[in-house]
Amino acid sequence: MRIGFFVWEYPPALVGGLGTYADYITREFVSMGNDVTVFTLNPGNLKTREIVKGVEVHRPLVADASNVFPMFVIDDLKKWGTNIRMFNDIFIYNILSASKFINSMLKKEGLNYDIVCVHDWLSSISGLMVKNETKTPVVFHVHSTEWGRAGGPGSEVVSHLEWATSQRVDKIVTVSHAMQEDLVRHGWPKSKITVVWNGVDPNCYDQKNCRSEDVEAIRKKYGIKPEEKMILFLGRLTWVKGVTNLVQAMPMVLEEYPDTKLVILGKGEQQNDVIDAASRLGIIEKVICRFEFVPERERILHYAAADVCIFPSVYEPFGIVSLEAMAMGKPIIVGAQGVVGFREQVIPFGPDQSGVHVNGGSPADIAWGIKETLCDPDRAKKWGQNGRKRVLQYFTWREAAKQTLQAYETLQHPQEQVEYRIVDMVEKLSTK
Fold first, then answer.
1. What's the confidence (pLDDT) of residue 78?
2. Is the domain of 405 the same as that of 267?
């Protein structure tokens, strides 16, 4: 299969989980015998066309038109302020990428693509353009939504792009059943939606590959003694991740387990909130913050050094960090209320238990989850072992790629197109 792959972030320009996903899944596609052409944003210092680990990557250079948009766009976009430059880059990246794909790759070079996939609203304009100009099936991968990220309506422009793309594309692939349910609640066509879980590389994320001296060096770096417990949070410091609630939970944990330290690794708009909360609660010496993006190899060592990993998100359609921690054999605590895919990854009870589910919006419940994990180290170790087994069974990138390709292949059969359109019609009629 020849796949056109439009994604806003791609190595080495990584921002978050979407870039990690794109990196691994495209390489897996290639290893399975497929041709993949990626179109992604160029921060200005990368090649505009190259082959990276078997993947053809195009990065068009953008130009600044941010002072032009307010002249003709709707009021919503004018509210972006300095963030209008981000919209500028996304918009121009989409226009240049889709134009190059349509006019150069398809028309000039005469290449035939079986599928075009676009990822989130960040590449949705490309998907709409491809639908306008070609008959190539387009798949919309939805990793998150504007209403979920914003905790409300959010940007009118972004929401409209998400909705318009959902209506025009041939198939929607999303990352969890929790996310699928949320999309359907918001009126998206259920018959188009397929769920495919993300994955992790269990060979890369393996405690056995970490040297004990390197792991010990991480703990010493943060002043964590051998008898102390290290709780690790890793992720963007934004409200949906529940990080300030985690800090507020720590005094309740420290009452029973005083030899515990929380390491927060990541950056985001809540950096000052985290510091302020720790200072106000008088636990600043127990909360160690490192506000930066850490390379993968060092992140792996942080997982290896941790006794417990915690991700108390209140909105997390999937969340790869939990898989990374599970692959490292760590007991984990995850937010599991609301649109949170963690609850599909982590088994919270029974013989296969791999961690604890908590309400990420409640510091008291987060504290309970941490204490429940710390109270029995042998049991927690067993949870970690179960977690790695679960990753090996369900959450490898090979399995994710296989299921994604199966979803793509259904678009090679027109009969299925007819069937899901009929289902859509029946659903609409039944609601009248």
1. 66
2. no
